[in-house]
Structure formats: structure tokens, C-alpha cells
Design goal:
Family: Belongs to the sigma-70 factor family. ECF subfamily.
Low-confidence stretches: 93-98, 100-108
Oligomer: single chain
Number of domains: 2
Shape: globular
Distance between the termini: 56 Å
CATH architecture of the largest domain: Orthogonal Bundle
Number of strands: 0
Protein name: Sigma-70 family RNA polymerase sigma factor
CATH superfamily of the largest domain: RNA polymerase sigma factor, region 2, helix turn helix motif
Mean pLDDT: 80
Strand content: under 5%
Largest sheet: none
Helix content: over 70%
CATH class of the largest domain: Mainly Alpha
Organism: Neiella litorisoli
Radius of gyration: 19 Å
Order of helices and strands: HHHHHHHH
GO molecular function, one term: sigma factor activity
Structural class: mainly alpha
Number of helices: 8
InterPro entries: RNA_pol_sigma-70-like (IPR039425), RNA_pol_sigma-70_dom (IPR014284), RNA_pol_sigma70_r2 (IPR007627), RNA_pol_sigma70_r4_t2 (IPR013249), RNA_pol_sigma_r2 (IPR013325), RNA_pol_sigma_r3/r4-like (IPR013324), WH-like_DNA-bd_sf (IPR036388)
Length: 184
Amino acid sequence: MTLRNDDQLLTDYGKRGDAAAFDILYQRFRQPLFGFIRQQLPDAIANEVFQECWMVVIEQAADYMPCGSFRGYLFTIARRKIADYWRRQQRQPSQTSDDDGNIEPISDDIDPQIIQLQQATNDVILMCVGRLPKAQRDVFMLKQTGLAVEEISLILGATFETVKSRIRASYSKLRSCWERHHDK
């Protein structure tokens, strides 16, 4: 069996109806894609957006023309879906997420202090990421999914050097924010 690249797999699925090719693509990208979406949306919405992304891939498979990487194409779809969600939320400010503030029950064998410490750590990290300027936050989130700088630059429509600078700046700001806030 020969290994096919992602673009060839989508082409095989779109042009020849090769369901096995789609399955391979799905297995390769389901975890990184969901992780990327979940970092930016509540659970229930993340699941919905994840499914919408794959529906776009399926619907556009027959017309897919490789002009970068499949990974870049897929994450561009996700970025647009995430932006659409947040735009809709700005138009409906009275809606809130069910996921905000939910506390899961603690079992007897888990140390509540450790859970508190983990939650505090997560809160600091999220706060620091949230304080990044949008351009740096976008680059940081895409980099966390494992995308290469070249792919990020294609997705964002920015030069390779601009993306590298934003990555460096985001890591520097996150490190500085972490140092200021993690012991408080």
C-alpha cells in the first residue's frame, strides 16, 4: 500500500468517492482540529463547529483544488466557523454558555487542593492567552495545533516573517504574564 498525502486523499474522496481516503483524513486530523476548536469555544458549541467543518470538507471535496496544504485548508474552515460563532454571539449578548462555571463533582479519592491548584493554573493560562493581541492570539492558537509557520502564514494571509515575529512575541508575552500571575 502506498502512502498518500492529505491532498491526494481528499482528491480521491472527492473525485472517486473513496470513503477509505476520507476516513484516513478524518483520523489524522480529528484530534488536532477538535483541540483547536475547543480552545476557543465551549464544549457544546465546539462539537457543533467540529461537525460543521467536516461537512464543509465533504460538500467541497469534489471541487477541492490543492493550493497549500489540506491542514491549512481545514484549519481555515475552522477559523472562519469560530469567527462566525463569535460574531453571532455579539449580536445576541443576552445568551450565555451552559459550560460557564459548571463544576464537576469531586470523587473521594481526588485531592481538592490539587484540583484547586490545577484550576488556578488553567485560569492564569487562559487569562494570559486572552490578554494577547488578536493577531498574536490567532498565531499562538494555530501553532498549538501543530501547524507549521508556512501553513499558518497561508491561513492568516501574513508573511512567513510576520508569523514568526508574532509567535515569538506571543510566547514572550505569555511567559511574562505567567511570571507575574502564577503565584498569586
